[in-house]
Amino acid sequence: MLDRIAHKLTRRPKLVLLVAAVLLVLCAIGAAATGVNYDILTYLPPDLDSSQGEKLLEDPFHMAATTMLIVEGMPPEYSNDLCRRVEEVPGVSSALWISSAAGIQIPQDFLPEELREMFFSGDATMMIVQYDNPGASEETMEAIDQVRSLCNQRCFLAGFSVVIKDTKDLVDGELPLYVGLAVLLSLIVMCAAMESWLLPAAFLLSIGAAILYNFGTNIVLGEISYITQAIAAVLQLGVTMDYSIFLYHRYEEERLHYDDNRDAMAVAVKAAFTSLFSSSLTTVAGFLALCFMRLLLGRDIGLVMAKGVALGVATVVLVLPAVLLTLDKPIRKYTHRVFLPDLSPVNRFVVRHNKAFSILALLLFIPALYGQNHAGVYYKLDEALPQDMPSIVATNKLKDEFNMASSHFIVMRDDLPYDQSLEMLEKLEAVEGVESVIAFDKFMSNSIPQFFIPQDILDICKRDGLQIAMINSRYETASDQAGLQVDELNAILKSYDPEAKMTGEAVLTKDLIDIADIDFKVTNYISIAAIFLIIAVTFRSISIPVLLVAAIELAICVNQGVPYFSGTVIPFVAPTVIGCVQLGATVDYAILMTTRFREELQKGQDRESAILAAAKASDSSIITSALVLFCATLGVGMISKIEIISSICLMLARGAFISALCILFLLPALLTAFEPLLSKTSMYWRKPKPAKAGKHSGSAAPSLSPLPQGKQSSKQEEIEKKGDPIR
């Protein structure tokens, strides 16, 4: 079946390219229609009280997003008029200011102390703006834009929804730079590593198509996170470039045996599919391990990237052959020398001192593990953003002038007796760090009949048997004090209403902190177990997966330990993503060298000669692949102003470099030193598996005829004379 498909594909390359182009147009439409979620906190598990509280703020209260509008040095009339105009903005559910509770003619000194401290600070005043839709929705983003357009330069809009809006604008502006820089740097690396100037362009055409196919099919997911959107393209470029290189290598080998390049490509496609399917399993397993995170952001990244790898393999097998056949002549015409180092002297030194390097590998685990376990991690999302962003400037003013670092929201039943409700509110306000509590029962006496109270005020506070309250805290989100405060507030709240829910950025972030450490351990264990199993089945060995996974895990530990030794604090999501992605993406380097080592042993070579031959054959592929992943992610890490994206990409770049070093300089020593053990614990290690009776290689299609031996020699001389575009 695969023979016939490969034969037909290579006979009609232009038709294949036409179909691929039509699919690209459809996927471009799908990519444009796929939503992007800029709120990481929405990826918390839906069974948490904080997540359920957010849903209740959306429905029935239509207050899922809340912002604070600070007005400095303006008369009360301006603030009152601004509050009225803000409330008329589509998407705004309410705008609360002192005029909502008292007339603006009343002097500040005559106002109750609690109201005065809540709405005024020096010459600044604050109003609370709430929105109908969730903070990350398009409707809320548009409403925030309109609210800002009503304000003058002395107005500052703060709140998590505004931070999300500014994050969206920043990511949308930077995304073309991410992709452009990744392509440019990868192109430079491939031009240096390959003998043809046009071959890298052919590879990038194929990979670019695979990336667009991946983004277009994301429409089936409904939406993806902005982190996934930012890193998916560069990561897919980095981890799937190997597949293109492998197909071309195989094509060059088969050209020696066939007079028609199309026949050679058909055989290469068949061989490449089998190898790439096995090779891509480890990468897919690494990404799918992220799906086991309780934080659903992991599933978002994992599914998109696993799909991207699968589509990368499919594009290499189905589309790249047509690209290469179409551009075959110009690829061979424009050649140059390769600029990769020859590591043969280093390989000989490593193999000669294999025991010393093996001991070094074991000793490196000690500082690496210590650094990994003690690296600083932060969870406060606005720390990952430029401090000159309007939303961050406004948030800092809110902290400095109103002593409001975070706000919690309570959703509880509204039939709680008035005296109990007042008692509960007093206890909540007495908790250390609480600045104020805004609640219906606190400001409205039970002696006033509810039918005397305006309906719009009632709708803000009470709906469908529920009521809400807002607690303003001086403790910053993600701080230890905020976490303890949330626990104490929750204990008081549950003692009066066991079904009550508390939510808000600080509460959601506390839940994020609680599950992040568990996610890190679970995903790492699952990715290691899955890749261990794949390698064990591939090599039919118990010891080889231990050795290969240990080599890459050493690289991962070193990578994640660097922030500790450099005094850097990294975002919480980076270690979890890196642990799975670096293992899945770079373990192929180890598999490549080990496979070639086994082949050389099966030819009858001793272990030192076999590893030297394996290293010489693998070095250029490993260096090229690692450099592409390094450059594709390094550019994004260097230019991104969003530290979550920057940190992930810088760690991926550093991880590719460290993994390559471990495989190039430590794995040869480990394979040499432990070869006797590998031989005893692996099937078909030194001797190949006996071929089944009647089984032969065959050809890609019945019509393909290999060249006779004499003509193969002639073909070899012709290729050597013209030069091979890639080695």
What does the model show?
Residues 695-702 have low confidence and may be disordered. Strands 2, 3, 4, 5 and 6 form a five-stranded antiparallel sheet that branches. This protein has 28 helices and 14 strands. The protein is 66% helix and 9% strand. α8 (160-193) packs across α25 (607-639) and α22 runs parallel beside α24. A hairpin with a 2-residue loop joins β11 (462-463) and β12. By secondary structure, it is α+β, with helices and mostly antiparallel strands. The chain starts with a helix and ends in a 5-residue tail after the last helix.
Low-confidence stretches: 695-702
Number of helical runs?
28
Beginning-to-end CA distance, first to last residue: 31 Å
> What does the overall shape look like?
elongated
Output mean pLDDT.
86
Rg over CA atoms: 31 Å
User: How much β-strand is present in the residues?
Assistant: 5-15%
The total count of strands amounts to 14
Strand pairing plus helix content: what structural class? alpha+beta
The major pleated sheet works out as:
5 strands, antiparallel
- Helical content stands at 55-70%
Task: Describe the structure concisely.
The protein is α+β, with helices and mostly antiparallel strands and 727 residues long.
Features:
727 residues, alpha+beta, 5-stranded antiparallel sheet, 9% strand
Map the helices and strands:
Layout: H1 2-11, H2 13-33, E1 35-37, H3 49-58, E2 65-72, H4 76-87, E3 92-96, H5 98-101, H6 113-119, E4 120-121, E5 124-131, H7 138-150, E6 155-158, H8 160-193, H9 199-217, E7 223-225, H10 226-254, H11 261-288, H12 297-318, H13 320-326, H14 328-333, H15 344-352, H16 354-374, E8 376-378, H17 390-402, E9 406-413, H18 418-430, E10 434-439, H19 440-443, H20 455-461, E11 462-463, E12 466-473, H21 480-496, E13 501-503, H22 505-539, H23 543-566, E14 569-571, H24 573-602, H25 607-639, H26 643-673, H27 675-680, H28 709-722
Parallel strand pairs: 1-7, 8-14
Antiparallel strand pairs: 2-5, 2-6, 3-5, 4-5, 9-12, 9-13, 10-12, 11-12
Helix pairs in contact: 1-11, 2-9, 2-13, 8-9, 8-10, 8-25, 9-10, 9-12, 10-11, 10-12, 10-25, 11-12, 11-22, 11-24, 15-25, 15-26, 16-23, 16-26, 18-21, 22-23, 22-24, 23-24, 23-26, 24-25, 24-26, 25-26
